[in-house]
Amino acid sequence: MSKKVQNDLIEIISSKVSQDCQIQRPAIKELVNLMFSQKKYFKNYEYLSNGDCAIILKAYNSQKSRKVALKFLGSSNQKDKNGIESLKKEYEMLQMFSQSEFLVNFYDCFYLMEEKEDEDTDGNDIIVQTGVKSFFVMEMELCENNLKQLFDFLRKQQVPPPKEMKEIIAIQMIDGLNNLHVKNIMHRDIKPSNFLVCTSKEYGFSIKLCDLGFASAVSKSKSFLSKKGTAAYFAPEVEEGKSRIQSDLFSLGLALLELDNLKTLNENWIDTKTKNYLFNGEEIPKEKYQIDKNSNIYKIAKICLQPWYLDRITAGELLSSLIQMHGQP
Predict the structure, then answer these.
(1) Which domains does the chain carry?
(2) What is the pLDDT of residues 25-61, one digit of tens each?
(3) Which of 42, 145, 148, 301 counts the highest number of beta carbons within 10 A?
């Protein structure tokens, strides 16, 4: 590929990546150059999204004839190396759940190695790998949108999804989480942006849970003395520094409540006052937000949002309940 294509890609990614991402222009330039040098079978790159420490690109794998998502994480310093361990854990988790219907599919992972100029025995200039790991890369199933993006789009269009579609989405969200919980895996960062929207023959779409970088193996009685995830979706016990497998359910309840009330809940609806109501076991007042309290999804969300973690039933029980309610006229 021409140098112009490389430079154009560097410019596009640099202009789109958010300022809070650890991977900025110099690292983006290195990332692109290394991919073009070491993984030439990837073509047609496009920027998809970024997090605090990762960039996700769309690409075409010409060896396997498939469109994929590539997740890049730097590995040049100790903070990056800690992030690498988190991403490698995500890779191991995804391997465990390969081909699970409502978890994103994982294909491969590899390192991009640092390069430098050198000379061969005849004095010719050559590029060699130094043995230093520059980036860790995961190749995954391509899902170009997530639920947060879908929610934002539907709000903008002022067209809330019908009851049938909302319940199918909710069932798939719970099913994905249940896949983890039955193996005693706690996700620790349940939120709309971590549910990907993929194409499906059966429904036209499927919702797949992703981003297992914080996930941990844990028994139902065990807790983690740490606060990981996204603060707005923290359960009461997580706010106190104790994460449990049931903490995922509280976060799920918030996401379900938003799904069910897109017309009245804006993207910043989870504020301090709202969390205080929920943490105290109180209903959100009508004057604050109009919430449909007669829907099947609300009945499930209410169970998830119990302040005391032991009052939340399992993801499997929630799934069975919603499937049963969904099948009723």
Answers:
(1) 3-141 (3.30.200.20), 145-326 (1.10.510.10)
(2) 999 999 999 999 999 999 999 999 887 778 999 999 9
(3) 301
